[in-house]
Design goal:
The complex is a heterodimer. Chain A is mostly helical. Chain A is built from 23 helices and no strands. Classes of the chains: A mainly alpha, B mainly alpha.
C-alpha cells in the first residue's frame, strides 16, 4: 500500500509545494528512504498531503494515519513546522488535534449529563467551565495563562515602548515631572538631530558592510566544518569537536591581543579583512553556535541518501552541494541572520580592529554625546544639550535596522531554531 | 569487498579533513597560537614599542598583583560570580515557565514567540547600557510592591540584597531569556504525548505530571541552557570583569598593559570554568536523584 502511494503521481495543486519542499523533507522521513531513489523521496511528503486531502471527509481515519506516518513526535513537530509554509497542508493540521480529542474523550470522564435537578446542573456546569474537564482547559487556567503571557510580553517590550515614548518628547517635556510616559506632542526634531549626530545613512551603509560580509564568510566556513564533522568518520574528529566547544568557552579577551598582533603583521588591520579572515576560517564571533546548529542539521540526513548518490557516481563535494546544502537551507538562513545580528552589534572588536576606519551605528551611539556637542555646540554655548529624548531617538535609530530585519525574517529565526534544536548532542 | 571498505575509510578521512581544513587552519593560527601567546604574556611584562612588542619575563607577578593588590579586579570578579549565581537559576526557571506557557494551546503563539525572541536581536552593549543607565531596565512596579525594610527584619541580609538585585534587574533578566525559551520549547515539543495520557489514566494530576515526567525528560535541555546562560553572560560586553580587562589593556604602568590583562583574563577564565562545572554538576545530580 505504501509503495503505491509513493509512486503515484502528485496531484496538480501540490506541484507548487514540491519545489519548495524538495530535499528538506528528506529529513523528516528517514525511515522511508531506504530503497527509493532520490526522485521518489522528494515526491513522498507531498503525496501524503494529497492523500490526506482526499480522505478529508473521514475524520476518524486521521488518528491511526498520523501515528503511522510519524514514528516519533520530534519528526512530527519538525514536519508540521515545515508544513506551515505550504497551503495544501492546512487540512493536515487537523490531524493531531483530532487525534488528541479522540483519545481524550475516551480516557477522561465526559461531562456529567444527569438532568435530574436543574440547580445542580447549572452549578456543575459553571464549575466545569471554570476548572475544566477532561482535556479541555478551564476558564480559570486559560485566563491565568493569557494573563501571564501578556504580562511577560509587556515586560519584554516595555523598554522599547519607553524609549519610543521618550524619544518624542521636546526639551520641556523631558524636565516636566507631570509628563510621565506620553509626550505632550510628537516632536520629530529629535530624530532629525539624532540622525545627523549618528551620521545615519553613512554609518548605516558601513554597518551593513561590516555585518554582512563577515557573516557570509562565517556561514560558509562553519557549514563546511560542520559537514565534515557530521558526515565523515576520521581520526581526530572527536578532538576537533572538543576543540570547537573549547573555542566557545575561552573568553575573547584571551585571544584578542595576540590576534591583533597577527593582523598587524598581515597588514589587515583597519580593514574589513580583520573581520572577514577569522570568519572565513571558522573563528568568527560565536562560530561554535553556528557549527553546532549545522552539525545538528547535517546529522539528520539519512546515510542511505548519501550512499545512493555515491553509487550514482557523485563525489564528496557534489554530494555536499546537491544534498547537504539543500537539507540545511533553514539552518543557513538562521545562521546568516544570527551572524549578521551579532556582527552588527559587535562594538568591542570593531573599535579595536577598525580603528576609526569604519564606524558602525552602535559605535556612533557610544560616542553620541561628544558628537552631538561638536555639531550642535555644548549646553553652555548654545543653551541646548543632547537631552535624554534625543539620546533615546538615537538609540532607536541605531537598532532600527535590526528591528526591520527581524520584522521581515522573524519566522526564519524562530522556526530555524525550533528545527535545528540547537540542543541535541 | 574488504579492499573497497578500506578505500572508503581512507577517502572518508581525506574528505572529512578537507572539509575541516579551513577551520583547522583558523584554529591553529587564530585561536591556539593566541591562547599560547596569551599564557606567555600573562607571565611577562609586555611593552608595546613602535616596531613590535617587548616581552620580559615577570613570573607570577601579574597574577599576584591582580589577586592581592588590585581590589577593583577582585571586586569585579566577585560581582560577576554573584551575578552568575543569581542569574542562572532565575533565567532557567523563567524561561521554562514561559516555554511551558507557550507550549500549552494558546492563540497568538507565534506572536508571543516573536516577542520573546526580540531581545536576542538587540543585544549590543551600547543599547543595553542605555537601558540600564536610564533605569528603563528596572521594573519599578515590583520594587515598590516589596517592603525591603520589613523583610530585612526577618530574613537574612544576603537574601534581601539578592531579592533587591533581582527586582532591580528583572527586565534585564527577562531579556536574556530569548534563546533559552526556544531551546525549552524544542525540548517540550519532543516529549511524548502518550506518556502524559498514560499518567492521566493512572490518576496523576498535571502538577505531578510536570514534576515526574516533564522535568526529568527535559533535564538535558536544562543543562544546555545553564551552560549557554553562563557563557553568554560571561561574554557580554557590559560584564564588569570584561570592562575592567578592556580598560587596563591599553593603559601602562604596574597593574596595566597587555601582560597584566592577559593574566586577568586567565583568572577570569578559571572562575568561569569553575562556575560552569559546579552548575553542571548541580543540575546533573538532580536528575540522578530523581531517577533513583
Amino acid at each position: 500500500m505504501k509503495k503505491k502511494r509513493i509512486n503515484s503521481a502528485p496531484s496538480s495543486d501540490d506541484k507548487i509545494v514540491r519545489d519548495k519542499d524538495k530535499l528538506e523533507n528528506v529529513t523528516a522521513f528517514p525511515s522511508d528512504t531506504n530503497s527509493e531513489s532520490l526522485e521518489n523521496i522528494v515526491a513522498l511528503p507531498s503525496d501524503i498531503a494529497s492523500e490526506e486531502l482526499e480522505s478529508n471527509s473521514q475524520n476518524t481515519s486521521y488518528a491511526p494515519n498520523a501515528e503511522y506516518i510519524f514514528s516519533t513526535n520530534a519528526e512530527k513537530s519538525i514536519w508540521f513546522a515545515k508544513k506551515k509554509v505550504t497551503k495544501p497542508s492546512d487540512a493536515l493540521e487537523i490531524a493531531p488535534e483530532n487525534m488528541e480529542s479522540n483519545s481524550q474523550n475516551t480516557s477522561y470522564a465526559p461531562i456529567p449529563t444527569d438532568l435530574d435537578t436543574k440547580k445542580r446542573f447549572g452549578k456543575e456546569r459553571i464549575r466545569l467551565a471554570l476548572l475544566g474537564y477532561g482535556g479541555k482547559r478551564g476558564l480559570i487556567s486559560t485566563v491565568v495563562i493569557y494573563a501571564m503571557l501578556i504580562l511577560f510580553g509587556f515586560v519584554y517590550v516595555y523598554p522599547l515602548l519607553y524609549m519610543l515614548a521618550y524619544s518624542f518628547m521636546d526639551a520641556s517635556d523631558v524636565v516636566n515631572p507631570l509628563v510621565n510616559f506620553f509626550p505632550s506632542s510628537l516632536y520629530w526634531q529629535n530624530y532629525s538631530e539624532a540622525a545627523q549626530t549618528l551620521n545615519f545613512w553613512s554609518s548605516l551603509g558601513q554597518s551593513m558592510l561590516v555585518a554582512i560580509l563577515p557573516s557570509i564568510a562565517q556561514t560558509v566556513a562553519t557549514m563546511l566544518v560542520a559537514y565534515g564533522l557530521s558526515r565523515f568518520r576520521f581520526r581526530g574528529r572527536k578532538l576537533i569537536i572538543g576543540l570547537v566547544v573549547l573555542a566557545f568557552i575561552v573568553p575573547q579577551q584571551i585571544t584578542m591581543f595576540p590576534q591583533l598582533l597577527i593582523f598587524k603583521k598581515l597588514h589587515i588591520l583597519d580593514s574589513l579583512l580583520s573581520f572577514i579572515v577569522p570568519a572565513a576560517l571558522g573563528q568568527g564571533i560565536k562560530s561554535t553556535i553556528f557549527i553546532l546548529i549545522f552539525f545538528q542539521f547535517f546529522n539528520t540526513i539519512p546515510k542511505s541518501v548519501e550512499e545512493a548518490a555515491k553509487i550514482d557516481g557523485a563525489g564528496a563535494f557534489k554530494i555536499f552541494v546537491k544534498i547537504g546544502i539543500p537539507a540545511a537551507l533553514p539552518a543557513i538562513l538562521l545562521c546568516f541572520l544570527l551572524s549578521v545580528v551579532w556582527y552588527y552589534n559587535e562594538t568591542v572588536l570593531s573599535a579595536i580592529y577598525f580603528g576609526g576606519e569604519y564606524t558602525t551605528l552602535p559605535l556612533q551611539l557610544e560616542r553620541f554625546q561628544a558628537t552631538y556637542e561638536s555639531i550642535f555646540g555644548t549646553a553652555s554655548t548654545t543653551g541646548k544639550s543632547a537631552n535624554e529624548a534625543i539620546y533615546m531617538a538615537g538609540t532607536l535609530l541605531s537598532i532600527l535596522p535590526l528591528i526591520v530585519i527581524y520584522a521581515f525574517t522573524q519566522r526564519f529565526f524562530v522556526e530555524g531554531i525550533d528545527k535545528a534544536g540547537i540542543t541535541g548532542e | 569487498m574488504k579492499k573497497q571498505n578500506t578505500i572508503r575509510i581512507r577517502s572518508d578521512a581525506r574528505n572529512g579533513l578537507l572539509f575541516c581544513l579551513p577551520w583547522i587552519v583558523g584554529f591553529l593560527a587564530l585561536s591556539l597560537y593566541p591562547i599560547i601567546m596569551s599564557v606567555v604574556y600573562s607571565f611577562s611584562d609586555v611593552t608595546v614599542e613602535t616596531d613590535g612588542i617587548k616581552i620580559e619575563p615577570y613570573g607570577w607577578g601579574n597574577f599576584t598583583y591582580a589577586l592581592v593588590n588590585d581590589s577593583a579586579f577582585v571586586t569585579a570578579l566577585k560581582d560577576y560570580a554573584i551575578k552568575i549565581v543569581l542569574y542562572v537559576p532565575v533565567i532557567t526557571v523563567v524561561s521554562l515557565i514561559i516555554a511551558l506557557l507557550l507550549n500549552s494551546k494558546v492563540k497568538g503563539k507565534g506572536f508571543f514567540r516573536t516577542l520573546f525572541f526580540l531581545p536576542v536581536i538587540i543585544t549590543s552593549g551600547p543599547v543595553i547600557s542605555i537601558f540600564i543607565d536610564k533605569g528603563v531596565a528596572e521594573f519599578s512596579g515590583i520594587a515598590t510592591l516589596i517592603d525591603f525594610e520589613a523583610l530585612s527584619a526577618t530574613v537574612p541580609q544576603f537574601l534581601v540584597s539578592a531579592l533587591k538585585f533581582l527586582t532591580s534587574e528583572f527586565i534585564m533578566i527577562l531579556w536574556f531569556c530569548g534563546i533559552q525559551i526556544l531551546v525549552f520549547m524544542t525540548g517540550l515539543n519532543k516529549l511524548d504525548k502518550s506518556m502524559y495520557e498514560a499518567a492521566a489514566i493512572d490518576g496523576a494530576s498535571k502538577w505531578e505530571a510536570f514534576w515526574k515526567l516533564t522535568l526529568p525528560s527535559i533535564n538535558p535541555f536544562i543543562v544546555i541552557n545553564v551552560v549557554f546562560t553562563i557563557i553568554m553572560q560571561s561574554m557580554f560586553s557590559l560584564n564588569p570583569v570584561i570592562s575592567k580587562i578592556q580598560a587596563d589593556m591599553n593603559a601602562s604602568g604596574e597593574g596595566a598593559g597587555y601582560g597584566y590583562s592577559s593574566a586577568m583574563s586567565w583568572i577570569y577564565f578559571l572562575v568561569l570554568v569553575v562556575l560552569l562545572v559546579v552548575f553542571v554538576l548541580i543540575f546533573k545530580k538532580k536528575e540522578r536523584r530523581r531517577v533513583r
